[in-house]
Design brief:
Elements (H helix, E strand, L loop, with lengths): L2 H15 L1 H29 L11 E8 L7 E3 L2 E2 L1 H9 L3 E15 L4 E9 L3 H4 L4 E3 L11 E5 H8 L8 E3 L5 E8 L12 E4 L6 H7 L6 E9 L5 H15 L9 E6 L19 H28 L1 H13 L4 H38 L9 H28 L12 H35 L8 E5 L4 H11 L5 E7 L9 E7 L2 E10 L4 H4 L6 E2 L14 E5 H6 L5 H4 L3 E6 L2 E11 L14 E4 L7 E6 L4 H16 L7 E3 H8 L1 H35 L1 H9 L4 H9 L3 H23 L10 H26 L5 H7 L1
Parallel strand pairs: 5-10, 7-9, 16-21, 18-20
Antiparallel strand pairs: 1-2, 1-11, 1-12, 3-11, 4-5, 4-11, 6-9, 7-10, 8-9, 13-22, 13-23, 14-22, 15-16, 17-20, 18-21, 19-20
């Protein structure tokens, strides 16, 4: 018989003899490996944003800072379109520079007619953003006016087929567009949020408009650049302000400074106005990595405990093998081989489970995770993890089972050892449960309590390019059935088009403000009460200086007023976009949060300037949402003549998109916490098996003396009380330290709650009680005095 066949037969006999224990081992390890694989794929997805593009690490995106000189208050991913031309002419280190401008215009084919989100793009954009193409030549695809490049998914949507090169569709004013190349579908982990690129060389494109009007230099374009080898990018960044100032026309919109962000660093860069997709946060990623390690540790503890629970039986076996000439190192290697086989079987099952679950996870969390995208790297990391878990979980029990003391007497685990098993296991579960509850509370706070306004049942509709049609639409909206209130605004309550303002005071710190423009009914739509004073009346378009304004409580404090009432009637002088304004305060609002809780809230001013209003906010009745939306759609089609498809969304959907990463991480964390509870249950079941054997004689005597199930249950449960208390005593401060650090990554967050800690403790105790009770019920009737004495 070959050595391999002999080993396999031995393992088979061992598994058959102890199939219950091995089933618990495999179940626990399978769950832990499956959870670890999912989290690892997610973390890898977050850390490799935009790396699917060739040479992505050479690409930089230009961002702008707006505010007073040498004091950028607002960062913007969008920059003046003219900067691309100025950089190309004045920066010798530039290799390529190109722009894209995000737009929403009607787009039609025989199969599809929508208000499409796409980019106007410079012809050389694909020399910088090297997106993978499946058809056509990207080097020349956007050279001709009226050419368009789209992904396979968009090609299927418009033409019903992915090979659409040469086919045409139309946009605004029936301008024809011809497909010249097809891109591979973009993955979810990219900063790009549109899948269609239209040549900016057409006379009707926004890029052409900007080029023909040098004074149109507001923050409008996303600019990307690559540099020649050896270029000092930091030095170039320092010269950009002077370059833009030398070319600037007009008094407004000049940025205070610029920053060049490497594309592969963009996802974890601080928030910027106009960002195409919400940013990620490193702190949350690190938390998930720690949780994954905890899950694997918990599975390893379970495995070690289950091996140790078999010490007496294995001790007899080890003694026989030693009598036959086996050395202790042979016995240790035997246990480690078994551990390796159990881990290998578990990881194969985990891969099967993950492969079946990934489509549902991708759909539910808006992800694009794949097991085999990089098979060599994935299998290498997975193999190393299996070896590490095998060694860490198998080495101690291998030494414990193989030592001479294992076959000299009772063969029982010491009280300290099994109690340490329970403490480590329960402590990890308690930490995860506290973390899960805290993360859910922070999510609830961020999407509800932190806002200080009610965004439920509010629909936001972007205006078309026809002001008269928009005015008619808004007027008719106010009388529409199911519409409760209507108000126009300039981006609010979103973070699009943030406008900074500031107040200089000699010898005192600069006061930074955020300026918002909205119809006075805005606060009715979002159900915001006044703290003091009155609302503004009507709207105005000229002059641009608002005579009256509202401020929030943070502004009251920053301006030095003792009370909100003290601010009423006071005039403030502030600067915004190189213009000095003087306005009178007529009302005070609570602190509203338009930014995410990652950003600090600050002073705000609200005026009723109507020249640049971009959206209309509509509060609808919750009793007939579908019917009201249908009537709104019909009204839009009537008032716009069908020339511009509607773009509408619920404010809640916008908010969820802003917290997309937090939502994903919360769902993953909850999944991991659930796995931890199951692992704990499996581990406690294994411990119950051990304790049943250890207490067999005592339980049999109690049974013979007429003890009830309750008496036996108490006898079985008593050893768990002290370990449960110690586990919580360890878990609570550990969780407090970890969560305090995690919450510190938010500018505004919930306090840690005693409910989280007590709830986790109670949950761990309940599951321990249920596990012990279930095992007691299954084994109580099987204990007999004669059997236990024979066992002894």
């Amino acid at each position: 018989m070959t050595p391999l066949l002999s080993l396999l037969l031995y393992i088979f006999r061992t598994v058959v003899a102890r199939w219950g224990v091995y089933l618990l081992m495999v179940a626990g390890l399978t769950l832990s490996y499956a959870a670890a694989i999912v989290v690892t794929l997610y973390v890898h997805d977050e850390l490799t944003h935009d790396r699917f593009m060739a040479q992505a690490d050479r690409v930089y995106m230009l961002t702008a800072r707006y505010g007073p000189p040498d004091r950028g208050l607002v960062a913007s991913d969008r920059t003046p379109a003219g900067m691309a031309k100025w950089m190309a002419s004045d920066v010798a280190e530039i290799d390529q520079v190109a722009r894209i401008v995000a737009i929403e215009w009607p787009m039609r084919s025989a199969r599809r007619q929508v208000r499409e989100r796409f980019y106007w793009a410079d012809p050389n954009i694909f020399k910088i953003l090297q997106l993978p193409a499946v058809e056509g030549d990207l080097a020349t695809a956007l050279k001709a006016p009226g050419s368009v490049v789209m992904t396979q998914r968009m090609a299927r949507a418009y033409f019903g087929r992915p090979d659409a090169v040469g086919l045409t569709l139309t946009t605004k004013d029936n301008q024809p567009l011809t497909v010249t190349a097809i891109l591979k579908d973009l993955p979810a982990n990219t900063h790009l949020d549109r899948e269609i690129f239209v040549s900016g060389r057409g006379s009707y494109s926004m890029l052409a408009v900007f080029d023909l009007n040098p004074d149109y230099q507001w923050n409008s374009a996303y600019i990307y650049a690559t540099f020649k080898p050896g270029a000092d990018v930091a030095a170039v960044e320092g010269r950009l302000q002077a370059i833009s100032r030398s070319h600037w026309r007009g008094p407004n919109n000049l940025p205070e400074g610029y920053e060049l962000i490497r594309l592969t660093d963009l996802h974890f860069h601080p928030h910027g106005d106009g960002e195409q997709r919400p940013r990620g946060h490193v702190g949350s990623i690190l938390a998930l990595v720690v949780v994954t390690a905890a899950i694997l540790a918990l599975a390893g503890i379970n495995f070690s405990g289950l091996v140790l629970a078999e010490t007496q039986e294995r001790g007899d076996e080890m003694a026989i093998r030693k009598a036959l000439g086996a050395r202790r190192i042979d016995l240790i290697w035997q246990i480690l081989r078994e551990a390796l086989w159990v881990n290998l079987v578990s990881v194969v099952l985990a891969l099967a489970v993950v492969e079946r679950l990934l489509p549902a996870l991708n759909g539910g969390l808006d992800l694009d995770l794949h097991l085999w995208r990089h098979p060599a790297v994935f299998l290498g990391v997975l193999g190393a993890t299996v070896v590490l878990v095998t060694v860490l979980s198998g080495l101690y029990p291998a030494f414990a089972v193989s030592r001479p003391a294992a076959n000299t007497g009772t063969g029982r685990l010491s009280a300290l050892r099994w109690r340490g098993w329970v403490v480590a296991q329960i402590a990890l579960v308690v930490v995860l449960l506290i973390g899960s509850h805290t993360m859910n509370r922070q999510w609830q706070y961020a999407t509800d309590d932190a806002l200080n306004f009610n965004g439920d049942h509010v629909v936001m509709i972007r205006f078309s390019d026809f002001p008269n049609d928009d005015a008619d639409f808004v007027a008719h909206l106010r009388d529409l059935k199911g519409v409760e209130s209507v108000a126009e605004s300039f981006g609010s309550p979103t973070m699009d088009n943030v406008r900074p303002a500031w107040i200089r005071r000699p010898g005192l710190p600069l006061i930074s403000l955020t300026r918002n423009s909205a119809h006075p009914d805005f606060f009715k739509v979002f159900q915001v009460p006044l703290v003091a004073g009155r609302h503004l009346s009507g709207t105005f378009s000229v002059p641009e200086v608002p005579p009256e304004i509202l401020i929030n409580l943070s502004a009251v404090k920053a301006l030095g007023f003792a009370t909100p009432e003290a601010a009423l009637g006071q005039e403030i002088v502030y600067e915004t976009d190189r213009t000095t304004m003087r306005s009178r305060i007529v009302g005070v609002l609570p602190d509203l949060r338009f930014a995410t809780v990652y950003e600090p809230k600050g002073p705000m001013i609200f005026d009723n300037f109507s020249k640049y209003l971009t959206v209309v906010n509509v509060r609808i009745s919750p009793t007939d949402t579908a019917g009201t939306l249908a009537r709104i759609d019909a009204l839009w089609s009537r008032d716009n003549g069908g020339s511009m498809p509607m773009q509408r969304w619920f404010y809640r959907d916008y908010l969820l998109d802003q917290y997309h990463d937090l939502h994903q991480q919360m769902r993953v964390f909850n999944l991991v916490a659930g796995v931890a509870i199951i692992l704990s249950t499996l581990g406690l079941t294994g411990l119950c098996i051990f304790l049943t054997r250890r207490q067999a004689r005592d339980l049999a005597i109690l049974r013979a003396l007429g003890a009830t199930f309750g008496d036996i249950f108490v006898q079985r449960l008593t050893p768990f009380f002290v370990p449960l208390l110690i586990a919580n005593a360890i878990a609570w401060p550990a969780a407090w330290l970890v969560l305090r650090s995690w919450l510190g990554s938010f500018a505004e967050h919930i306090p840690l709650s005693a409910v989280s800690f007590l709830g986790a403790a109670v949950t761990s105790v309940v599951f321990a009680l249920l596990t012990v009770a279930a095992h007691s019920a299954l084994t109580a009737g099987k204990v007999s005095v004669s059997a236990s004495l024979r066992h002894e």
